[in-house]
Amino acid sequence: MTLSSQNPSHDFSLARSANLCRHLTLASQSFPEQLAVAVQTASCSFFSPKTLSYQELNFGELNRQSDKLAHGLNAYGIKRGMKAVLMVTPSLDFFTLTFALFKAGIIPILVDPGMGVKNLKQCFIESAPDAFIGIPKAHLARKLFGWGKESVRFLVTAGGRCLWGGVSIDTLLQGTPDTPYQMAALDEDEMVAILFTSGSTGTPKGVVYSHKMFEAQITALKHDYAIEPGERDLATFPLFSLFGPALGMASIVPEMDASKPITANPDYLFAAIEKYQCSNMFVNPALIERLGEAGVTDNQCHQLPSIKRVISAGAPATISSIKRFSRMLGEGVEVLNSYGATESLPLSKMASQALFATTDITDNGGGICVGEAIDGVDIAIIEINEHPINTWDETLRLAANDIGEIVVKGPMVSRSYYRRDSATEQAKIIDGDGVRHRMGDLGYLDSEGKLWMCGRKAHRVDASTQLPHQPQRYFSIPCERIFNTHPQVKRSALVGVNVSGDTVPLLCIELDTSLACSAGASLYAELNQIAQSHEQTKGISRFLVHPSFPVDIRHNAKIFREKLAVWAQSKHKE
């Protein structure tokens, strides 16, 4: 089965040599005084409560300052083709630095600080950066943990004094010409950035981003999400915030730790939306839940009348959290749930009202619907296997409603990982002049061409017992959603444990602590009854209650099932 969306009105072709910063330059020429970036800061003193202030740049200023900084980077010795780690918190410096790097053809390396010290060090070893650009705290960590010590030759400090060598941004800007910068002309397949995956579903890998990939993402946001110049976006994810100026849309950055959105102060975000009358929001499931809980209570419902579009990505948000959050939105405004990954985003989208209509299917083990492919994307389902596939063949496609691995092709799909040949071989399939990416997710395409997610390939449980009338293969999302319908279950996680040499399915349960839970024996009896009443869960008879699931800090939704599997195996031996 295939799902391919092709619209001739969407032109993904590029000139052989271009630079994505041309969008910023055009905006600065068309509406130089229009707001491009606003950054919110919360400050307080001993005698007064926290107050919110804002720093702003219009399109003309952002273009001129990034030009000056590109001149300064070159004068310092950082040239086209060099790689630079960028560890700068969302700020005006973050925007001017990133656009300066793109203009100069210097390759930014973007990492998620939440991936942990060990993973960060490995990322720097693999990417071998020539320069390290960061805030003072990042430079301190670089010194303490030895990040990039084998390759880094240039040090730049943003947002503070230069305490550990190198130069500050202010120093770079001294004496640089206030003249337009001649942007590097980049081939459409040239590497323009390295974005490391978060590591929440495995070891972080550096995804090679080409000019063509960024252009395809900008095109998708413009056409498939109907974003127009003059809009204002509440930007809660640093990478997405960069697309705002490229779309002629202002990026409004709230005071929050982007790597830990669950800790955000909802009042700050509501204040930023109201001040700038934001029309767009890009939020992950953790923020949807956080804002919904804060804005919708028994006594009040905060209203967001200026918002006309909400884009959610990163992990599937729960239907209950989307419904609660949607009460703050105006009539007809929907949450657009996007499916994709660092290697390929966006791929498909599903509006919230259509998602609500799939609740019964999801609750009965049908997976989570993530919608139809956006224009220019081809989605196919192939057999589940762990072996590399060198060349694409149309006979690999499965029929409608057959569960298998999701494989995608489109202009926003990455061609390789940086210096990870084995990972590239495992995840990429050559298809003519293009590449297909194996998502590592399982799912199926229904008869209408909609994609349904059934969990990660690594999270399936292949049972080795040979019992009649029971499935041999269990999928995480279908199984877990069935058990999540129990009123006392907050969430569940399917794992496999070894019992006398056989692999058997076991379900870890996290209870809803806001409820008075029944005794263990009666709860297990009810869970067993649920298991036997659905074909997808027959044979699951082992349950363990876990006090609090380990989850990723960015999305607060991706469960670390590998850790739970180790815990469950240890408990099973007791």
TrEMBL record:
It comes from the Bacteria. Residues 53-418 form the AMP-dependent synthetase/ligase domain. Keywords: Ligase. InterPro entries: AMP-binding_CS (IPR020845), AMP-dep_synth/lig_dom (IPR000873), ANL_N_sf (IPR042099), ATP-dep_AMP-bd_enzyme (IPR050237), OlefBLtnSynShew (IPR054910). The keyword Ligase applies. SUPFAM superfamilies: Acetyl-CoA synthetase-like. Signal peptide: none annotated. The keyword Disulfide bond does not apply. One of its GO terms (molecular function) is ligase activity. This is AMP-dependent synthetase and ligase. It comes from Shewanella woodyi (strain ATCC 51908 / MS32). The lineage of its organism: Bacteria, Pseudomonadati, Pseudomonadota, Gammaproteobacteria, Alteromonadales.
